[in-house]
Write a structure and sequence with these properties.
The complex is a heterodimer of chains A (259) and B (247). Chain A has 259 residues and is of the alpha/beta class. Chain A has helices spanning 18-29, 60-73, 97-123, 146-166, 184-191, 202-212, 221-232; strands spanning 9-13, 33-38, 50-54, 79-82, 128-133, 171-178, 243-246. Chain A has a single domain (9-180, 220-243), classed as Rossmann fold, CATH 3.40.50. In chain A, helix 1 links the parallel strand 1 and strand 2. In chain A, helix 2 (60-73) packs parallel to helix 3 (97-123) and helix 3 packs parallel to helix 4. Chain A starts with 8 loop residues before the first strand and ends in a 13-residue tail after the last strand. Chain B has helices at 17-28, 59-69, 92-113, 139-159, 176-182, 188-197, 207-218; strands at 8-12, 32-37, 50-53, 72-77, 117-126, 163-170, 229-232. Chain B has a 7-stranded parallel beta sheet, sandwiched between helices. In chain B, helix 1 (17-28) links the parallel strand 1 and strand 2. In chain B, helix 1 (17-28) crosses helix 7 and helix 3 (92-113) runs parallel beside helix 4. In chain B, 49% of the residues are buried. The model of chain B has no long low-confidence stretch (mean pLDDT 95). Classes of the chains: A alpha/beta (259), B alpha/beta (247). The A-B interface holds A 1, 159-160, 163-164, 166-168, 172, 213-217, 219-220, 223, 226-227, 230, 235-242, 244-253 and B 1, 152-153, 156-157, 160-161, 164, 171, 199-203, 205-206, 209, 212-213, 215-216, 221-228, 230-239.
Chain lengths: 259, 247
């Protein structure tokens, strides 16, 4: 039986990270040829038809060269996943201009550059799909994540703009907006006590956060990969310009008042 | 592997349009499917699909349906009606019809089926882009879909983690309801041409475009998704209503 994206070509930025790697594996299992583009190498041995390439998405020359090379190897690109992102755990008062600029360079400019240089190949693709990484933090704020929240809001707006401009060329553009997903980035957030844990132990803090979710758990990278797969596949051929929140119901509710 | 193998599903309003698309997709993916409507069983319904003659607006009808079906893994609240009127032009009968099916019907079905759903169950409500932005001269329909959106969040919060509840918000899907909308225009052909140009996808949706996200939300692949809205509209609502060059 063939996979749900059998024979499609895909490039996943941040592909070696927690969520990115789950996407690479899922795409491979469903029959795609995948470039895992990441500034660092994956920790695991890549599965079938997944190749790691080092790429700094904030570097225009590097992105241009990466797609020039890919264009010489593949006739077209069907799927671009802009999953690379960084998180500075600070309020604006504590955020330096360098940190602010670096956040935008990776999360927003990187998405812009990869999409821009991928477009000629995506136009030749069959049912092409760009999947950006927004966040539920682009709608509502987590404490102490000011620059991150701002970059994700920018990705949401960019997603809609790209969908309008390039839909008539046969390219769909969506953003997936994860909530709390069990990744090294989330662990770092907890350890930084950025959520205002009020002196709770790490375990107590994590349990308290789980309990606030209607699903009583965090998401896993595989949960996110499942939705990315749907958006990448032809099953989603009429879905474009939307922000797909996947957060275990967290943002469906008002803040939990202790009454 | 079939993605809904072993699951039992109810899809309300599966006689035609989006509901039928979901019925067909669920059967294809291995689910045991029942559907219902106010009329007798349609001749062209797949043999393997159970039919119940049910008016979802009537609590007693829905309770009978739930007793007949028993345990259920997936409930899709698809049955809906539209009346193309403003508030000033709407009658009491219009209110009873639209709110009865689109709002009370969803409530009736959720109330009757929630106690019968197993842990890991999924409720999928068909909301609409019209629950977020107004279609002209569709006042009660727009309001009824906003009700569906609010109820969706409440069920997710109150009945998680055992039951998940999400809404799909279709845009303009090629069904009888869409044609009824164009018939309101002075020049239905011109209206349709311009409407297509407002869609980045340059086409209207098909029932199967909605069925594919319904399959995903019904399956265990979406086990972290609850309380959310899944809009499938060909990009329509990503763009501003102000489109220079179009009237």
């Amino acid at each position: 039986m063939s996979g749900r994206i059998e024979g499609k070509t895909a490039l996943v930025t941040g592909g070696a990270g927690g969520i990115g790697w789950a996407i690479c594996k899922r795409f491979s299992a469903e029959g795609a040829n995948v470039i895992c583009a990441d500034i660092t190498a994956p920790g695991d041995f890549p599965p079938k038809n997944v190749e790691h390439r080092s790429l700094d998405i904030a570097d225009e020359d590097a992105v241009r060269s990466a797609f020039a090379r890919l264009g010489a190897e593949w006739d077209s690109l069907d799927i671009l996943v802009n999953a690379a992102g960084i998180e500075i755990e600070k309020t604006i008062e504590d955020t330096t201009l360098d940190e602010w600029n670096r956040s935008f360079a990776v999360n927003v400019t990187g998405t812009f550059l990869c999409s821009k240089f991928a477009l000629p190949m995506l136009r030749k693709g069959n049912g092409s799909s760009i999947i950006n990484f927004g966040s539920y933090d682009g709608f509502i704020a987590d404490p102490g994540l000011a620059a991150y929240c701002a970059t994700k809001g920018a990705v949401h707006a960019l997603t809609r703009a790209m969908a309008c401009d390039h839909g008539p060329e046969g390219i769909r553009v969506n953003a997936i907006c994860p909530g709390y997903v069990d990744t090294p980035m989330l662990q770092s957030f907890f350890e930084g006590d950025g959520s205002g844990g009020g002196g709770k132990s790490l375990d107590d803090l994590q349990q308290a956060v789980r309990d606030v979710h209607p699903m009583r758990t965090y998401g896993t990278p595989d949960d996110v990969a499942n939705l990315v797969l749907w958006l990448a596949s032809d099953e989603a051929r009429y879905a474009s310009g939307q922000l797909w929140v996947l957060d275990g119901g967290l943002s469906a509710q008002v803040q939990q008042m202790k009454l | 592997m079939m993605r809904l193998a072993g699951k039992t599903a109810l899809v309300t309003g599966g006689r035609q349009g989006i509901g039928r698309g979901i019925v067909d997709a669920f059967i294809f993916e291995g689910a045991t499917v029942s559907t219902c409507g106010r009329d007798p069983r349609p001749d062209d319904l797949p043999e393997t699909c159970n039919w119940h003659q049910t008016d979802v607006a009537k609590p007693a009808d829905v309770e009978l349906l739930a007793s007949a079906m028993g345990a259920c893994d997936v409930v899709v609240n698809n049955a809906g009606v539209q009346v193309e009127k403003t508030v000033a032009g709407s009658s009491d009968e219009d209110w009873d019809l639209v709110m009865g099916v689109n709002a009370r019907g969803v409530f009736n079905v959720c109330r009757a089926f929630l106690p019968r759903m197993s842990a890991g169950g999924s409720i999928i409500n068909i909301g609409s882009i019209s629950g977020n932005v107004a279609d002209p001269s569709m006042a009660l329909y727009n309001a009824s879909k906003a009700f569906v959106h609010g109820l969706t969040r409440s069920i997710a919060v109150d009945h998680g983690p055992a039951i998940r509840c999400n809404a799909i918000c279709p845009g303009w899907i090629e069904t009888g309801m869409l044609d009824a909308g164009f018939d309101l225009a002075d020049d239905p052909v011109k209206a349709k041409t311009e409407a297509l140009l407002r869609h980045p996808a340059r086409r209207f949706g098909k029932p199967e475009d909605i069925a594919s996200i319904a399959v995903w939300l019904a399956s265990d692949e979406s086990s972290f998704a609850t309380g959310q809205f899944f809009t499938v509209d060909g990009g329509l609502t990503a763009a501003s209503p102000l489109q220079p060059g179009l009237s």
